[in-house]
Amino acid sequence: MASGVSAERSFPTRSEGVSDEVSPLAFQESIKNDKADKAYKRDAFLSPRAGDRSHDLSNDDQERQSTDVDNVDKAKHGIQISEHSLSSCQSFLALKHFSFELAVGNLSGADPQGHATSATSRSNIESCICRFTLASRLAMPTDRDHRYDAVPPIPTYEEAIADAHDPSPHETESQSLLTSRNHGAPSSSRRPNGYRPPTVESDDEDGLFESDDDGGHETAYVRREMQELDIGEPDHGSRTSLWGKRIPFSLSLPRWKWSWRWRLPRLRPTIVLPSGPPTTTTTTTTPSSTQGNESSTENNTSRRWRFPWPRFQGASRKQVILLLVRIFAVFVILSFLYLVFVSDVFSRMARRMGTGFRFDPEDVRSWVQGHVDPASMATTVKHFTSYAHLAGTEGDYSLASDMEHMLTRTGLDTVHVDEYYVYLNYPKKDGRAVQILDKDGKASWTAKLEEHARAEQVAGRQTYAFHGHSKAGDVKGPLVYANYGSRQDFQELKERGIKTEGAIALVRHYGSQTDPALKVRAAELAGFAGCLIYSDPLDEGSDLDDVAPDGRYMPKDGVQRNSVSLTNWVLGDVLTPGWESKDGLPRMKVDQSPGLNHIPSLPLSWGDAQVLLKHLKGHGKKVPDAWKGGVPDVSEWWTGDAGSSSSPVVRLKNEQDEVEKQPIWNVYGKIEGVEQTEKSVIVGNQRDAWGFGATDPHSGTAVMLEVARILGILLGKGWRPLRSIEFMSWDGGAYNLVGSTEFVEANLDALRRNAYAYVNLEAAVAGTHFHAAGSPVFRQTLHRVLDRVHDPVRNESLRHLWEERRGQVETPAAAGDFAAFQDMAGTSSIDLSFRGPPRYPGHSNYDTYDWAKRVGDPSFVYHGLMAEVVALLVLELADRPILPFDLVGYADRLDGWVEDLVAWAKGKVKATAEDAGGEEKFALDQLSIAVHEIKSAAKTYSTWEHAWDSMVISSGGWESASLNSQRLNYNDRMALFETALLDLEKDGGIPNRTQFKHVVFGPREWAGYNTTFPAIRDAIEGGDWDLANKIVLKTASLLRDAARVLIDTEDI
């Protein structure tokens, strides 16, 4: 069959029983309760029905059919009165035809006994359903008196197939379909007596709708039939649909309480019944059945798919429209609230457009200064110094989590943690020793090494005395004193005939060689087997008898820890020079790193050094007066001599744990700018410490968090800067500036493109005198800031006090976390601090919160002043429309530095050249010419700011779109000037130390931190005049390129 239902499928006979699920009248309950849907189904019979049906019928069947046809004719004629509802009945007819087709398809087969299927039962079913549905749809109240005995009553579906006599073979299967649950017992009927089953005759298209009665009589007849159906209809609600058992979805209509309901559209098939009986294969064939099969072949079942849409009429349509309008209004309101309060779309749009809420800058500055809280900073210092926290340790991780939480609590836009994997070393409890050995090789004296235990820690233990990145080893040799441990000092020993091969060097901090790592390297190159570095009272100021914990100076047992990795040669992780230390990236072998020394070293207190110096008396030669230190009770200062068998022999033991991939954690927080979100001003501070670190680094930590707290409050009030502000807490700073360097290496291109400035805070409050070191572009801005900050102790502005000491922005050193920003990324950087004439017990376990609140800064007054300075400086850099860089001042400083270089170079040439020809081979004229070009370009460039002021003022404070674009371009060029001073060619930078790209700033190979033109100076120092000339020419070319950045004003 075309419908897909097998023609050979047969149902069980009455004697075989019927499943409990069979319920052919289950759909009547839903029809009864759905009054609104009756009109929808009523006109279904107006569509074309099945075609001719020619069957061999029994006499009884024909009689029943003739009676039924008469009734159907009258009903159809009555239907014509309601022709206006024809168009609303098509979908329901599809459901009925679908059910009929399934029933007819199954009834057309052969039963298990081989009897022919009765077409009569099928016709009875169709006729009954047609008459029942028609009557139920057209039933209307009437005042006319009807007689029920004039016309046979319309039976229910169950009565239509119930028969009092024994079923004939042709009726067996049709009766079995309608068997009740109690094994074939007939269902009860309202009128069991006088019932005549309906009969079906062949369709007569010409006479089907003809009637001799008048229209009113036939209409009343149909209404009477419907009233009869509405009286005492049996409850069949407990019976399920026959079709639900055979088909995976039910055709029963839902019980709607309303004229419509929300529903998703479904694809439902519409089945058109064939005009003839379906083709069947039976064992008994009659001429009539053969004719029916031929007719069935010509009329195949067709199927088409429709989307059912709800139909609304009258008041229901208005209610639906009103409801839809209300739903749409609610949706619009909720969308608006989401956009305003959740999505932040308007503020982001304002940022892109360069507009938004703008606060009066002067009001913001005054508000910031008035909300600095020294007590809050004291609490921060106390928290961060409550336990030791070397980089990568449990204490360090705990403080990283605290930092993340604190920055988040301030209300910054984003806060996250960045992890790197770096090489670190840690001391073992009994792995370090310094001993004087007797002739038998046994220890006659052992250094204490450790400091007195401090009571401030709340967890763990205080840090052991050791050197970061030191070489592990256990060596012994004669002790030799070498002053400050510079190359010149070791050269003097050699000239005086002091043997140093295999000896243990004893040197003191500071002096002509300030970098501890270079002291160890110089000792290594001089042939020493190990190196000891102590803090001398003369350099510390301890001879004033004002020592910690009650004074500012290093006590007798105070030990100054340091990293001895070669910061001047390799910056950051010593195993990944030039690239970030992320997991999975390549790394060098420890013994191949150029940033590590190859002899063991340890720090000592001057109390332990005192014993060693006393044992040197009478060995070697007496030292010059300039070599004498301030250690008390040392009556004579001798050098010692490795060539003398009588010199004291010292053992240096340094066993340690070394981790090549130790995790460290940087923490970042960001305030997004309203105009230039991608451009940023960065404030950074080291978090890890050698001890408790109250001064270094956590005075800077407290200042940074206080600035973040204040700006976070401003954010809550609706303020935003024009450019982004970032706060960064570096890990591993004590070990060769690891955290900041790895960040720069991982974000090098972005920093060169978008980082406007970097402000560094390390030992931010170690005294009372203000200091600043960095790029000259900050000079004017710093002057404005210092004018606003008043020192309450001296009752003067910080600028007045600073200039009184002839203070200026010093040359940036390579000893702070700003080194990577300045020398590698070309980001203009500045380091800010308060320092005192005396030193402080830095890098020791005496640098505690207790010391800070009693001696360092008792009322945290200078912590508050530094917070004001940093906050105001950040506001100047991030919230001024014109970036406040002093390029004219930069050009002036460049001119002065070139003059200093020329004077220094002349002295070196005369000292190293064998004849006057050496001086002629080298010249610095190209540098001077290039600097003059920069001065001219900077002066011309700076005039545009005044022109911008005039244009904005003349337009009533309004900045046009084109003027805004020019201003942003102007700012970018100012920031790009510093970046243009980088040597970015392949293998560019300082020769053999290519991490350092800046041609003006950077560390020299040996001569400390604060230098200018380091590559030129190193080449001259080494006597390589050809290399010196090449570097001069390249430097001059880069200076001219930087000038062209300012001269090219096509967009301004």
UniProtKB/TrEMBL annotation:
SUPFAM superfamilies, alphabetized: PA domain, Transferrin receptor-like dimerisation domain, Zn-dependent exopeptidases
Domain PA, first and last residues per copy: 475-562
Domain Transferrin receptor-like dimerisation: 924-1046
CDD domains: M28_PSMA_like, PA_GCPII_like
Transmembrane segments: 320-341
Lineage top rank: taxon: Eukaryota
Keywords tagged on the record: Membrane, Transmembrane, Transmembrane helix
Sequence segments annotated as region (Disordered): 1-25, 38-72, 162-216, 273-302
InterPro entries per the UniProt record, alphabetical: PA_dom_sf (IPR046450), PA_domain (IPR003137), Peptidase_M28 (IPR007484), Peptidase_M28B (IPR039373), TFR-like_dimer_dom (IPR007365), TFR-like_dimer_dom_sf (IPR036757)
Biased composition regions of type Low complexity, renumbered to the chain: 278-290
Chain intervals with Acidic residues compositional bias: 201-213
Domain Peptidase M28 residues, every copy: 666-850
UniProt feature, compositional bias: Basic and acidic residues: 162-173
Gene Ontology molecular function: any one: carboxypeptidase activity
Biased composition annotated in UniProt, kind: Polar residues: 174-191, 291-302
Protein family membership: Belongs to the peptidase M28 family. M28B subfamily.
Name the UniProt record assigns to this protein: Zn-dependent exopeptidase
Species name: Sodiomyces alkalinus (strain CBS 110278 / VKM F-3762 / F11) (Alkaliphilic filamentous fungus)
Taxonomic placement: Eukaryota, Fungi, Dikarya, Ascomycota, Pezizomycotina
